[in-house]
Amino acid sequence: MNLSETPADPLAAYRIAEQPYYRPSAREVALYEHAWRHRLPLLLKGPTGCGKTRFVEYMAWKLGRPLVTLACNEDMTAADLVGRYLLDTDGTRWHDGPLTLAVRHGAICYLDEVVEARQDTTVVIHPLTDARRMLPLDKKGELVHAHPDFQLIVSYNPGYQSSAKDLKPSTRQRFAALAFDYPPQEVETEIVAHEASITTELAARLVRLARRTRELRQQGLDEGVSTRMLIYAGQLMRDGVDPRDSCDMTMTQALTDDHDLAGALRALVDASF
Ligand code: ADP
């Protein structure tokens, strides 16, 4: 092997140098640390944009571990995760995929929205989630035993409630789970004010609006306004964009194509600004 081609730290690109801003909502930090101590595979469930990814970034930084994040989608293949042979000047050479890098060298691997991946892709994680903690690279004929610091975290949004997009019980029962939701009102206000650099008063008004939209979930809206959307709206308002235009762009149009639901959302915006 040509050692000069082996990077000193294959996970250098995945290290988090600066402390990510994370405002805890409950006991999630302590609970996660217990799960980490045992390297339990972890499932984070909760609506989109409520802080799951930021939490994982913060925990990886706190524990001093590199973080390999992969947003799952239906075009993703097992090779995209584990790696493949690629042609280079010397012929074909094996390239570890991001999951293999994490398993081999000891990173936290975060598979965001894991239900978006096809079943034949998700099965590759099964042997990593039980006592074996290993990853078979079938094409290469290698069995990679996980580094002691490897941990697998997956996220999923139970709100979509489509059976095609549900996590299979055979996958799901392999994980310890932490439930996330939008943060409590005061905490969410603090987060929105911080992230959008707006006043607490404006952030509080946005958060009150979001909480009303979340009540529309029983009336046909798949999801209410997320913390992320509030931050986008706040950023536009800080730039001087009219509050109604800001909310229309970042909330109403983003959430629904349905005329009646859009009307209901606009009425809530009008009552708030
Ligand atoms: P998810 O992964 O659940 O879809 P994110 O973690 O990407 O959501 O959260 C969306 C945005 O909301 C983040 O980029 C961050 O700005 C903000 N955010 C949400 N929750 C928190 C929190 N508890 N502390 C700090 N920022 C948060």
TrEMBL record:
Keyword ATP-binding: yes
Gene Ontology terms for molecular function: ATP binding; ATP hydrolysis activity
Entry-linked Pfam families: AAA_5, CbbQ_C
Residue ranges annotated for the ATPase dynein-related AAA domain, each copy included: 41-175
Domain of life: Bacteria
Alphabetic keyword roster: ATP-binding, Nucleotide-binding
Membership in a protein family: Belongs to the CbbQ/NirQ/NorQ/GpvN family.
Stated name of the protein: Nitric oxide reductase NorQ protein
Species whose genome carries this gene: Extensimonas vulgaris
